[in-house]
Amino acid sequence: MFEVLIFIVLAGAGGYCVWRYWREKRYSNNIAAILPAESQLRMEIPINNVNNKQINQSSIPKFIHGWKEAAGIGVVGSAPSMYYFSQIDPTVMDALDFAFAEDLSNFNTLVDHIDDKYFDVLNTSGAEGWMTRFEGYVMEMHSVDVLENMGYEVELPETANQEGWDVLLDGEPWQIKGGQSPEVIAEHFEKYPDIPVITNADLGAHYEGYDNVMVLDDVSAETIQEIAGESLNAVNQLDSTMGAGIPVVSLIISTYREVKLHNQNKTDLGASVKNVGLDVAGVGVGGFAGALIGAFIGGFGGSFGFMVGGLIGGIVGAVVGKSGSNAVKEIAMKEAFHDYECKVNKAQYLLAREQEKAQSTLKEMVAGVNQDLNQANEKLQEVYKQKFEHQKIHVVEKQRLFLEEVPTVLRSIKQELYEIERKLDEEYERPSFLKRMICPSYEDVAYRKTKLWFKERYRILDRALTKFSEEKWKQDMQGTYAEAIEFFKYYEVNSQNLEKILESTIQEAEKADSNRDKMKKDFYLHVLQAEETIRQKAKQSFETLAEKAVIEKQRISKAYDNYMYERGKLGR
After folding, report:
1. pLDDT digits over 31-68, tens only?
2. Which among 559, 556, 540 is positioned nearest to 53, based on CA atoms?
3. Fewest beta carbons within 10 Å, which of 180, 269, 283, 368?
4. How far apart are the first and last CA of the chain?
5. H helices then E strands: how many in the chain?
6. Per-position b or e across 415-432, b if 16+ CB within 10 A of its CB
7. 315 touches 290 (CB < 8 A)
């Protein structure tokens, strides 16, 4: 056991060193990718694109690459141990726990006890005597299972050396006798004639018809010997084979992978041999050591704990070992990846600097163009300002004449309506009130409707006269003029004088709009010239930047191809 503890300590220290190295290397690579390039003196955030194309930056996986494979190797490599565990009969374990005075609940202690009492002294009288005694206890535990299946309530004594009886069946004491010699039953009856016997089919053949002898037909001496021998051998093999298959499985899988990569021309013979050795040393030895450590710890929980602990330990050890072998195998790949990232960062920095220069030049040029445009705009406004003022005076005068004419036209219309209404009243022969109410004629209804129409026209005209009075339009000529135009758009008025004034006003407004459009066109020509200047300069800047981006992209592509080659050698 002392040697096992030393091995566990050394394996744990080695695993820690590998883990520590891998962790330090991974953090260093990540930090190197973030820090500026060696040629950069300032700390700047690099841009993420070149010429509107995203640069895809691969990253090293944060978790252990191939951990599923390593875990699978741990499981498959533990298959022999799981097979031997399945061969251990539970009644044998019960017998070991019940028969011997020392505590054998710890599987490691149990293995040492079996080795000391049986396997280490095999083919000696001591081993045969221990085995004979042990088979008797196995016979008792096996019989207990059979009896319980038969429906009996079975109780065991508190100690294995109970005098006279081995079990209580439904509260009654019984002695269990096995083996192949019928004398053991006769000796029992000589000493304890009142205590009946339970025995196997071999001895039961000598006591047929005895009421105080119960024969278990399914139990034989040969069966008990087989159960005891196979189970003890399975316990011994379970301890011996724990984790031993992991290095073998690791060797097979690693060799298969390297042969496949070699056939695909992704690696060379030297690298393949190196990788196989690293996998066997890392995954195989790590899984084997982890299985031993896990089994030792799990052994405190018996055979099941020994098996589960060994399985888990084998998986953990294989995964940890895989991380160690990966750390060594990935050195060249990580160096290539680091070189690739440095190339990317450097390219990003150089292109960002070129972009800044181009942007600065364009900003200065745009500022100068804007200044020229402002000066041109001021000159144009000065030229057209006098024209606009002169035309504005003419337009306002025409609008004034129009608004002065509006009340005259409205009053003349109202006077015309008065005359027409007066003639209507004179021509209409008004019948009696009762006739108009009870049986009005067509003329009556027409007269009434026409009077209402006149009333509504007078109301509209009076409201318009108030709205378009001189007092109103002097306060807000433009607003009153716009309302008057809307009024005459809706109500048709035949006035040649009013139409003549309005036509003259529109002509003056069109002249002003024409001058305004001409000024806009002149300014638009200046803008087009400025845009063309900026476009040509921007085109030159982008072409220069694109040429430099192509050069940097070639460098990055070369570094990336080297990284992918190193990665391909690892089968990724």
Report:
1. 555 444 433 333 344 434 433 333 344 444 444 457 77
2. 556
3. 269
4. 42
5. 19, 7
6. eeeeeebeeeeeeeeeee
7. yes
